[in-house]
Specification:
Elements: H1 20-42, H2 52-55, H3 60-72, H4 76-93, H5 101-121, H6 129-139, H7 147-187, H8 196-211, H9 216-227, H10 230-269, H11 279-306, H12 311-314, H13 322-343, H14 347-358, H15 360-375, H16 388-412, H17 417-427
Helix pairs in contact: 1-4, 1-13, 1-14, 1-15, 1-16, 3-11, 4-10, 4-13, 5-6, 5-17, 6-10, 7-8, 7-10, 9-10, 11-13, 14-16
């Protein structure tokens, strides 16, 4: 690892070196992520990946709420947030104010600690900071690659992930068919016609489906564990985190994050995220991105709904078109926000979004804290007490609160409280906090 030694003083980035459009993008993505995370916070564990768990007999309002989020936000907000993380690494480690590898890895280590705090202490098993910290260790090695190379690597990763989804979907469909065959044969008293291989495959599907469903007794057990008291909620959540860190993260999350971060690095190097391209570019990005994204997502939503929310049609990690739709939507949002920032429209709103983005880490952890208080044994224990459409009333209140609080806070302080702590831990000294 090259760069300055740990004994040489390096200063944190000053306010005057910030790029407002990137803060606006980040604030928008941060608020948008709560549209998805609120499902994990407020509903039972199967609902995020298997909407049939709570939508099979849902009202029209809840079904339309699910469809709207799937169309406009699912996957896209995480994609956009990851892209901005990648851009932030380039901004942090290159140029006239470049920080050394030593500082980058210290910063990344403390991000990992914040992520583990979020995942375990704040009871959020959907935390993304741990994944970002691990991916950040790789990004430093690619910081000086040209945009074209970064686009190519990102594209290869997206292609490989899509092929992975296709392969998993095909394999699971075969096990699903064999499961149906076994059930029919057993019901007809023809169990001897089923081979051991088919029964083994049927068990694979049964285990997979059971992972995303709960019987009434399991619902009561999860409700008690997550809402009775903090120690029980901690224990339940720790088991979920163990599953994510040993399977979901290495198989899915890390590659997803890397692909989108590399795309963000390339977009930064080509001036896209700085709102530095001409207006025609952003308008084309709007129409192309939203055109592709809404077409793909609309197809997936229609397929899921027409199937009665069959798990094979709703589970994101077996949809070969999943990444195309979410990237398209992310591009559309970049085009829209880039055009708005460049033209100077909605100045009051973009100013507030910029403040939210400058305090992204504080606001992200605040989501976990607020939702832990509302839904878990850490506070009121209201898990499962709200329908999907009702959860978004809570989301709107949190949005309004953060859009109000963030600029107010930054009017008095130079950093968000967690950002200040992050800088203090990274640089080994406390930067000036109050204005």
């Amino acid at each position: 690892m090259t760069g300055t030694s740990p004994n040489i003083e390096v200063a944190p980035t000053s306010e005057t070196n910030r790029i407002e459009s990137i803060d606006v993008f980040r604030g928008f993505a941060l608020l948008g992520i709560l549209l998805l995370n609120i499902i994990g916070f407020g509903l039972f564990s199967p609902s995020y990946s298997n909407p049939a768990f709570d939508l099979a007999e849902a009202t029209m309002a809840n079904t339309w709420t699910w469809a709207t989020i799937e169309l406009f936000a699912e996957g896209a907000m995480r994609c956009l947030f990851s892209m901005l993380f990648g851009a932030g690494v380039v901004l942090f480690t290159t140029g006239d104010n470049a920080k050394s590898g030593w500082i980058h890895y210290k910063r990344t280590f403390w991000l990992l600690m914040f992520g583990l705090f979020d995942a375990y202490i704040l009871l959020w098993n959907g935390d993304i900071l741990v994944t970002y910290a691990l991916a950040g260790t790789v990004l430093y090695l690619l910081r000086n690659k040209p945009a074209k190379t970064l686009f190519i690597i990102s594209g290869i990763l997206v292609l490989l992930m899509s092929l992975q989804h296709l392969g998993m979907g095909f394999a699971l469909k075969q096990t699903s068919n064999m499961y149906d065959e076994v059930i029919l044969a057993d019901a007809a008293g023809q169990a001897e016609t089923i081979s051991d291989e088919k029964r083994a495959a049927a068990i694979v599907w049964e285990d997979f489906a059971n992972d995303f469903s709960l019987n009434p007794e399991e619902v009561e057990a999860e409700l008690a564990a997550r809402t009775s008291n903090y120690p029980d909620a901690f224990t339940w959540n720790a088991k979920k985190n163990a599953e994510i860190y040993t399977f979901v993260l290495p198989i899915f999350l890390i590659w997803d994050a890397l692909a989108m971060m590399l795309l963000g690095m390339a977009f930064y190097k080509t001036g896209v995220l700085q709102a530095a391209r001409n207006p025609a570019f952003y308008k084309k990005l709007i129409f192309l991105g939203f055109g592709i994204g809404l077409f793909i997502n609309g197809y997936e939503v229609s397929r899921a709904h027409s199937s009665g929310f069959d798990l094979m049609a709703t589970f994101a990690q077996i949809k070969p078109t999943y990444h195309v739709g979410r990237i398209g939507m992310a591009f559309g949002y970049i085009g829209l926000l880039g055009w708005i920032c460049q033209a100077g429209y909605l100045k009051s709103l973009t100013s507030r979004l910029s403040a939210v983005g400058r305090m992204a880490l504080t606001n992200y952890l605040m989501h976990s804290l607020i939702c832990a208080v509302i839904f878990t044994g850490f506070g009121f224990g209201l898990l499962g007490q709200f329908q999907r459409v009702e959860l978004y009333g809570i989301v709107i209140v949190i949005w309004l609160f953060q859009l109000w609080l963030s600029p107010l806070w930054l009017g008095q302080f130079r950093f968000g409280p967690v950002e200040w702590l992050w800088r203090t831990l990274t640089y080994g000294r406390a930067p000036k906090f109050k204005r």
